Amino acid sequence: MIFGINWYKYASPAAFYPLAGKLTPWFYGLASLLLVAGLYISFAVSPTDFQQGEAYRIIFIHVPAAWMSMFIYLVMAAWAGIGLALNAKLSSMMAQALAPTGALFTVIALATGSLWGKPMWGAWWVWDARLTSELILLFLYIGFIALQAAIDEPRRADRAGALLALVGVVNVPIIYFSVRWWNTLHQGASVSVTTAPKMATIMLTGMLLMALACWMYAVAVVLSRVRIIILERERRADWVKALVEVNQ
Amino acid sequence: MSTGFTSIIYRDLLQLLRRRSDIATTVFFFVMVASLFPLAVSPDPVTLRQLGSGVLWVAALLACMLSLSQLFASDYADGSLEQIVLSPHSLSVLVLGKIVAHWLVSGLPMVLLSPLLALQYGMHSHSLLILVLSLLLGTPALSLIGAIGAALTLGVRGSGLLIAVLVLPLYIPVLIFGTGAVTASQTGMSAEANLSLLAASSLLALILAPLATATALRVAVE
C-alpha cells in the first residue's frame, strides 16, 4: 500500500483496463516530448565526432534500443514469473504484451548496429560478442512468442511461456559469458567497442533522453496492447460486454 | 525414490529397445549430417581437421534435438504420462529417470561413434580424445535442457519445429564450451577450462532441468 492506493484492486483486468486507458495518452505524450528533445540534441546540438564523422549519430537510437531489449526481457520474465507463482492472469497478459516490443527493440538494435558497422568496420555483420548475444536474445524472444502462439488454451500458454522465460533468464548470463569467451578464443578481425573514447556530456545527455523516450514509448505501447489482450480474453465477461467501445 | 527411478529407466529402456529403429534413426542422422560436410565444403584434410569438432558437435546437437520430440510423446498419447504425474513418487525424479534412459540410447551411442567420425575428419589422437570427452560431458546437458523443451511443446501444433526454436538458443553455451575444448587442444592450449565449464553446465542442468521439466509436464497434463 503506497500512497493509500489499493494495488491489489488493479490486479483484476476489469479494474486495470480503464486505468491503463487513462495512463496510455500520458505515456505517449511523455514519449513524444522526450523524443523531440532527444532528437534535437542528437542532430542539432551534438558536435560531429572527429573520428567517426556523422555516422556515430546512429548510437542515439542503437544504444537505447539495445538497453531496452535486455531490460524488457527481464521485466517480461518477472511478470511471467509473478503470473506463474501467484496465478495472476493480468501478470501473464503483461508478459505476453511485452514480448513483441522487446523483440522489436532487439531487431532495431541489430539493424542499426549493422548499419553502423558497415562504415566503421567495413562489414555489415561481425561475429562480435555483443552482436552475437543480441542475436541470441532475439532467438529467445522468438521462442517465447512462438510457444505462446502455438498453444490455443490461454492458461496453458501463459504457464508454458512463463516457464520458458524463467529458463531463459537463468541462461542469459551463461550465454552472455560463453559468447564472450568464445569471442576471445576466436579473435579474428580485432574489433573492440569496449575501448571507445569517452563520450562528451552532451552526447550522453542525448542518448539518455532517447533511452527515456524509448522507455516511455514501450510503456505506452505495452499498455495499449495489454488492453487489447484483456478484451480478447475476457470477451465473455459482463463488464466487457457493457463497455461503450465494444458496443459501438 | 530409487525404486521409482530405476524402474522407470528399466521401463523406458525396454520400450526403446523394442522400437530399435527409432534409436538407429537418431544415430544414422548423426552420421549422415557429419558425412555431408566434406561433400559440401571440401575434402581437403587441413580444412576438415579444423571443421571436425564443430561439425560433430552441431550434428550431435541436431540429432539430440530431433530425438527429443519422442521423449514424452508416446506416454502422453497413451495416457501413461498422467499416471506418472499422479504417482506418489517425486515427478522430478521420474523425469530424470526418463532423461537418463533417453541419454543412454541417443547421447551415449553418439559419444561412442564420435571417434570413428573424428578419424574421418583426420583429427589427431589427442584432440580426438578431447572431443570424445567433451561429448561425454556435454551430451547429458543436451538431453536435460532438451527435456524442458519437449515437455513445454507436448501436444502442441508443430511441436517438432517449435522444439528447435525453443531449445537451440539454450544449447549455445554447451556448443561453445564443447568445441572450445577441442580447438584449445588443437592449438596447443589446455582444454581443462572448457571441459570444466562443460561439466558445470551439465551439473547445473542436472539440478534445474528435472524441476522445470516436471513443472512443464504438470502444465501440459492439467
What characteristics describe this protein?
heterodimer, A: 248 residues, mainly alpha, B: 222 residues
Structure in a nutshell:
The complex is a heterodimer of chains A (248) and B (222). With 248 residues, chain A is mostly helical. Chain A is 76% helix and 0% strand.
Topology:
The complex is a heterodimer of chains A (248) and B (222).
Chain A: H1 13-45, H2 59-86, H3 89-121, H4 129-150, H5 154-185, H6 201-233, H7 238-241, H8 244-247
Helix pairs in contact in A: 1-6, 2-3, 2-5, 2-6, 3-4, 3-5, 3-6, 4-5
Chain B: H1 2-18, H2 20-40, H3 45-68, H4 70-77, H5 80-86, H6 91-120, H7 125-152, H8 159-186, H9 192-221
Helix pairs in contact in B: 1-6, 2-3, 2-6, 3-6, 3-7, 3-8, 6-7, 6-9, 7-8, 7-9, 8-9
Could you describe the 3D structure shown?
The complex is a heterodimer of chains A (248) and B (222). Helices cover 76% and strands 0% of the residues of chain A. By secondary structure, chain A is mostly helical. Chain A has one domain. In chain A, helix 2 packs antiparallel against helix 3 and helix 2 packs parallel to helix 6. Chain B has one domain. Chain B contains nine helices and no strands. Chains A and B meet through helix 4 and helix 5 of A and helix 8 and helix 9 of B.
For the termini of chain B, the CA-CA separation is: 24 Å
Gap from first CA to last CA of chain A: 37 Å
Number of helices of chain B: 9
Q: How many individual β-strands of chain B?
A: 0
Oligomer: heterodimer
Work out the radius of gyration of chain B. Answer: 18 Å
Shape annotation of chain A: globular
Domain count of chain B: 1
**Order of SSEs of chain B, N→C?**
HHHHHHHHH
Largest interface: A-B, 28 and 29 residues
